[in-house]
């Protein structure tokens, strides 16, 4: 029987704040339990400086530079580049991505195309706030436009 493969990515969480790494509060009990029967990497580093290129690198094994996936230009990851596609096509694995991050599940950057099941954000955390998904053009974030809109948003100023 083939082993299960589960990649848990918490790209906005500091390891020192998890109970898995002995934080004083029980912040991540599920991860602590899962770690008893898993491989846990203690020296993981993000290959890129933001979500999309980091995940492209993790899914392919190529560096951000090799992929040409930086924040200055549009890049769409071909699904056949990922190890998820290899697991699905050659090893008969079922694949899925489950994330509240629209960079992984909703944007046209190719990150979700290698998965059979894609489950994205169920709802905005702050429904009265600006929707960051509106500030993408062909998969490229327009972070400067989003920041200006946030600063000029009447709801933000309250």
Please tell me about this protein's structure.
This protein is mostly helical and 158 residues long. It is 30% helix and 6% strand. The protein has 7 helices and 4 strands. The protein has helices spanning 29-35, 51-60, 64-67, 83-91, 102-105, 143-152, 154-157, and strands spanning 96-98, 117-119, 136-137, 140-141. The protein has a two-stranded parallel ribbon with strand order 1-2. The chain starts with 28 loop residues before the first helix and ends with a helix. 15% of the residues are buried. The model has no long low-confidence stretch (mean pLDDT 83).
Query: What would you report as the Rg, rounded to the nearest angstrom?
Result: 18 Å
Strand content: 5-15%
What's the average pLDDT? 83
Poorly predicted ranges: none
Write out key terms for the chains shown.
158 residues, two-stranded antiparallel sheet, 30% helix, 4 strands
């Amino acid at each position: 029987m083939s082993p299960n493969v589960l990649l848990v990515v918490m790209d906005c969480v500091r390891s020192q704040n998890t109970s898995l790494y002995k934080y004083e509060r029980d912040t991540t009990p599920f991860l602590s339990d899962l770690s008893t029967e898993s491989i846990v990497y203690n020296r993981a580093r993000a290959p890129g400086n933001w979500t999309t290129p980091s995940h492209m690198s993790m899914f392919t094994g190529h560096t951000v530079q090799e992929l040409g996936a930086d924040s200055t230009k549009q890049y769409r990851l071909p699904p056949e580049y990922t190890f998820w596609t290899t697991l699905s096509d050659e090893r008969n694995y079922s694949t899925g991505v489950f994330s509240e991050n629209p960079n992984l599940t909703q944007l046209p950057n190719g990150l979700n195309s290698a998965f059979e099941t894609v489950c994205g954000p169920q709802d905005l955390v702050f429904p009265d706030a600006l929707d960051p998904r509106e500030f993408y053009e062909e998969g490229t974030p327009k972070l400067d436009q989003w920041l200006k809109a946030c600063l000029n948003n009447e709801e933000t100023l309250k």
